[in-house]
Structures are given as C-alpha cells and as structure tokens.
C-alpha cells in the first residue's frame, strides 16, 4: 500500500516538507500505522546481542531521520529493533540554507546537505527522559561554528548530556555537510577525540558502547587506520557507512547537487567497506551496516559481509515500513534452515 498509494502522493511534494508532514501524522494520528501498515514481526529468533546490548531484531533506523528524538517511540512501533537519534550538537542550529534535500527518483537515492540542523542536545534529552523501552543510539557531532581544534569539547558536552538516556553513542565525523568535519577522520585528531570520550566513558560506573561512523569514501589505507584506531582506543565498533560524495553512474536531474548521496548507488560500496573492515580486522569488533539497503537481499549481503546489525534510511523512505518486515521474514527463513 505504501509504494502504490502513499509514496506517489508524498513524492509530489518537497521532500523536507513531506518529512515534517509525515512526522506530524505519525505523532498525532498513530492509529494510521495500525490501519495501513502490517503488524511488525516479533520473534525471539530475531534477537541479537551486540556490544553487550540486546536488540529485539537487527534492523535499526539510521541517524538523520529523527534528529531531535521526537518520534522514537512511534518509529519503534513500526518494527525497528533500535532507533538512532541525531546528529545532535551542543547548541541548536538551523543547518544549511534550503533547499537542501533532493530526491533522485531514477536512482532510488537522496542527496542531502542538511548541515546538522537540530534543536540542540538539551532539547533531545528532555524528550528522551520519557522513553520507556526503545533502545536508543545517540549520534553526536560538533556545531558548525566550532573550529576543529575545539571540536572535542562539543563531543564531550553531548556525551555527558546524553549519557543517562541513550544505550550507545555514535561519533559522527563523516558528514560531508559541515565544513572541514571530515578532517577529524584523520588518524591523529580521531585518536585524540575517541580516546578522550572513551576515557570519560570508563570513568562511569556503567560505560556505554561508543561507535565511530565512517564515510564510504575512505581509501584502503584510511580504513586500515580506522581498524588501528578502534583497537587502540578500545571503542565498541564502527558504523559503515555515512553518505558519499561520489556521483558515479547517476541519471537523475538532481545528480549535480552538492551534499551527501544515499540510497541504491551506495549499496555496493558500503558492503565493500563492511567486508574490508571485517576481514582485515579479523572480526575484531562489531559493525553496523548501513547504505543502500532497499531489499531483504541487500540486508542479508551486509550481514554476510560482516555486519552484526543493519540500519535503514533512504530505503525506508523509498520502500516504506514494509521493508522492515521483509528483512526480518528473510532472517527467519534463514534461521529455520539452521540445524537445531
């Protein structure tokens, strides 16, 4: 129903306006999900235990969709095993100028240059205080006006504020839409940033998993550096991958827009990065796979490449909430083939 009835209507309007309209509908009329969407699959065989946390299923929602922790309960009700909020910054900021979100329909893709638009970490904390049962990841970043040499303080502020209210953290240094942010992926500043946060973490009575979200545009040498950094800092794992700056083989009219590209064009590259990290590290740490998952087959390929969990974003927008069930159904089929 989503792809035949709902999506064609939504796709006639500006994507950012549709995003907020959809949020309003899910928040104010939650009965619509029960009326129009299939009941989420629940099965013990879908549960996963990763970095010390129990996930009801391995299909999560990637950061960027619910930036301000407004809709995490409603999104969980759609069937997601976990919801990652953010990217959050210490102070609220409007992000980049509009128009900043573009559909590439012929490529089943999206280009965004949102620029960490969010209400600030304290606003999100107030909403998260009401959370009863949703497993939450907190994706954190730096404010646009904060110079890189002071960026560590922004991450520390977000980490401290969110700590009691999220189950794991994601350090975002890979968005292409905040000036010079990706420079923090270089070995020295990244080691310092992650080391500082991990030191704060270990001083807590109940340390939380810290993950690093990386770009798909890193070279093999840079990925090897990432493996070394994860091992040296002892963070819990990696999210692979964020959006890409590549525009290879696109056909849509919006293909030349600046920003990060997500969706089907990223499917192959993100899986390659997952496989590289898994194999070269000897499966030393868990990986959350994200990028171009539009079918159950795409999800299975990422899990087979070495991902422990997966996340949806653009595939969720193009394929609808039914995609969550499709992936979980395929996982149950696979589970039924295993020897008991």
Automatic annotation (TrEMBL):
Its EC number is 1.3.5.2. FMN binds at residues 63-67, 87, 139, 172, 213, 241, 263, 292, 313-314. It catalyses: (S)-dihydroorotate + a quinone = orotate + a quinol. Substrate binds at residues 67, 112-116, 172, 177, 242-243. The gene is pyrD. This is Dihydroorotate dehydrogenase (quinone). Binds 1 FMN per subunit. Keywords: Cell membrane, Flavoprotein, FMN, Membrane, Oxidoreductase, Pyrimidine biosynthesis. Catalyzes the conversion of dihydroorotate to orotate with quinone as electron acceptor. It comes from Chryseobacterium paridis. GO terms for molecular function: dihydroorotate dehydrogenase (quinone) activity. Transmembrane segments: none annotated. Monomer. Pathway: Pyrimidine metabolism; UMP biosynthesis via de novo pathway; orotate from (S)-dihydroorotate (quinone route): step 1/1. Residues 46-331 form the Dihydroorotate dehydrogenase catalytic domain. It is a peripheral membrane protein. Its cofactor is FMN. PANTHER family: DIHYDROOROTATE DEHYDROGENASE (QUINONE), MITOCHONDRIAL, DIHYDROOROTATE DEHYDROGENASE (QUINONE), MITOCHONDRIAL-RELATED. Belongs to the dihydroorotate dehydrogenase family. Type 2 subfamily.
